[in-house]
Amino acid sequence: MATLELVNVVKKFGDFTAVDSFNLRVEEGEFVTLLGPSGCGKTTLLNTIAGLEDATSGEILINGEVVNELGPFERDVAMVFQNYALYPHMTVEENIGFSMRLRKRSGDEIARRVRKVASMLELEQLLHRLPRELSGGQQQRVAIGRAVIREPSIFLFDEPFSNLDAALRMKTRGEIKELHQRLGVTSIFVTHDQEEALSLSDRVAVLRAGKLEQYGSPEEIYSKPATKYVARFIGSPQMDIFTGDFIKSGDEICYRIGEASVPLLAKVKPPIQPVDMGVRPEYVILGKKGFKATVRLVQPVGPFTYVTVDWQGGSVTARVNGVSHLRPKETVKVEFEPEGLLFFDRETEKRVDM
């Protein structure tokens, strides 16, 4: 196991800055995900950690040692690529054991270690097959086995599930998590899939245009997004964010969105600067109280139904447990749970605690 630290890491391709002044610390045994949309710099950052790309400036430290000048093999990291990168002419057994043969280990040791890894990943019956004879999920496990057998200080995963169908993604995700729990090796995982990031990680680094937008536990990232960008990127459906203003209604402070007024917690004190308000679907209640709205869209998704409603000046999606019998154009009443409301500075887009 190892610690990993990135200090002001910059990676440029000509005039284009792919990674910009990036700082991150990963503790021993942590599973950290680099999360963001395509083109945000996460794979470039992973390649820079691996030594496949040279950092333009800044330092990469493994166990406190600067490794910028070391090659990929010398950094003691193992990478699992998006396209698996298996040798097509080698069997599963030969692919898994290849790095040990490069190190000139004995045949007995290689065979013993390959059997151990194959057993761990349920590949024992496939050792004599070629990659073209395997399913996508099996090829992915072989790629993981090739990394595991090296017993590296750090595992690097570059969107390893992107070529798998939904069922296999879920299965392989569980296998990766169990493997990490068993081995405890420091791991960096790249994905654009927020569900993967939240379910696998000890901490998540959300990237935006090559910069670190927020770094925290999955719960922090979801419940306390640092910015509007994180709030909208995390969550499916995404958080609804409204531009409105504060008003006083009797003894209550409310946030007005078009013709709707949303009561706030008594402790909320409106700030001086203009702020926008956000709410996730689980904090939107369709019932007998609140303001009137009209159902626009009903989307059943198994255990929940997502219901989108409109009113003069606004629209929001609610999560309803089970099957909803609401239909488009029906009139409903809407409440927002005050505890679930978040506020963001309209200019800086940073979360404001009130």
Please outline the helices and strands.
Layout (H helix, E strand, L loop, with lengths): L3 E10 L2 E11 L4 E5 L6 H9 L6 E6 L2 E2 L10 E4 L11 H11 L4 H14 L15 H13 L5 E5 L7 H18 L2 E6 L2 H7 L2 E6 L2 E6 L1 H6 L4 H6 L6 E4 L1 E5 L2 E6 L2 E4 L11 E5 L4 E4 L3 E11 L2 E8 L2 E8 L9 E6 L5 E4 L5 E2 L2
Parallel strand pairs: 3-8, 3-9, 6-7, 7-8
Antiparallel strand pairs: 1-2, 1-4, 4-5, 9-10, 11-15, 12-13, 13-14, 15-21, 16-20, 17-18, 17-20, 18-19, 21-22
Helix pairs in contact: 2-3, 2-4
The order of strands across the largest sheet is 6-7-8-3-9-10
- Report, as a whole number of angstroms, the end-to-end distance: 41 Å
Average pLDDT figure: 93
**Secondary structural class:** alpha+beta
Portion of residues within helices: 10-25%
Shape: elongated
Plain-language structure description:
The protein has 354 residues and is an alpha+beta fold. It has 2 domains: 4-233, 3-Layer(aba) Sandwich (Rossmann fold); 240-352, OB fold (Dihydrolipoamide Acetyltransferase, E2P). Helix content is 24%, strand content 36%. It has 8 helices and 22 strands. The strands form 5 sheets. Strands 6-7-8-3-9-10 form a 6-stranded mixed sheet, with helices on both faces. Strands 16-20-17-18-19 form a 5-stranded antiparallel sheet, with no helix packed on it. Strand 1 (4-13) and strand 2 (16-26) form a beta hairpin. The longest helix is centred in the middle third of the chain and has 18 residues, at 166-183.
